[in-house]
Design brief:
The protein contains five helices and 13 strands. With 252 residues, the protein is of the alpha+beta class. The model has no long low-confidence stretch (mean pLDDT 90). It starts with a strand and ends in a 14-residue tail after the last helix.
Length: 252
């Protein structure tokens, strides 16, 4: 992975109805902060600037923002306006919401925890403690609806994917691979190392927005035992508890 940044943001065409504004080749919070700042500026401009009225969606990623627009008689003019906004984020960063999410690390929820710990010369308890001390940044949502790619995994826990992916990963599994942490919102095949599980659904179709996490959010894990995990799961299912309860600063 290279660590070079561009002297100025790059404008890249994505078909005939989207532009991608790219800030750098590498991934880090400062680059992603500029992506999120541009996303906010573009979405604000859509509300009052006719030049941005044709924009239908924005998609932030690790180091770029893709802007989708309706067919426009002058897409080049829109591209230049996007670059102007991008350059104005030079010294600006933007963070999202802060979450404190429960996680259970019992053995049946964490089939790879012991192997990851052994690989790095640690105990499973030390791995869990380190995970719960770490602030994870949501860089992007991808792979499937609600799946968060989260950076910030300590270097001492960087772990390759499994040599043979699982045919079925349970929903809500907390996993690591390479330098990333993630949560599987749905049952699916997957090759990441499973270290625990959260009682929260990462994607609920009836909620607005349906995805719990968004690009720019910060996530901390809080270890819970099986009893508390089940209690939270039941309270969420009954409507007694809502996912917004786990925003940092939400009432207890």
């Amino acid at each position: 992975m290279t660590t070079s940044s561009y002297d100025t943001p790059r404008l890249l065409p994505l078909g005939d109805s989207a532009w991608t504004v790219e800030f750098a080749r590498h991934i880090d919070p400062a680059v992603h902060g500029r992506v999120m700042a541009l996303d906010a500026l573009v979405n604000d401009a859509r509300q009052h600037d006719p030049a941005f009225a044709g924009i239908v969606d924005t998609v932030p990623t690790f180091r770029s923002l893709t802007v989708h627009f309706r067919p426009d008689p002058d897409p080049l003019a829109l591209g230049e306006r996007l670059l102007t906004l991008a350059r104005s984020t030079e010294a600006t960063t933007l963070d999202g919401r802060h979450w404190l999410l429960p996680a259970c690390f019992d053995a049946d929820f964490a089939p790879d925890l012991a192997a990851v710990a052994e690989r790095h010369g640690m105990t499973p308890a030390a791995v869990v403690e380190l995970l719960c001390q770490t602030a994870f940044r949501v860089y992007m949502i991808g792979f499937m609806p609600g799946f968060p790619y989260m950076g910030g995994l300590p270097a001492c826990l960087h772990t390759p994917r499994l040599s043979t992916p699982r045919k079925l990963v349970p929903a809500r599994s907390i996993a690591i691979a390479g330098e990333m942490c993630a949560v599987y919102p749905w049952p699916s095949p997957g090759g990441w190392n499973l270290l625990g599980r959260t009682p929260l659904d990462l994607f609920v179709a009836g909620d607005n927005p349906p995805a719990l996490l968004a690009s720019g959010d910060c996530v901390h894990w809080r270890a819970v035992d099986r009893g508390e995990y089940s209690r939270i799961e039941r309270a969420l299912a009954s409507g007694e508890l809502h996912r917004q309860h786990f925003l940092s600063g939400a009432p207890a």
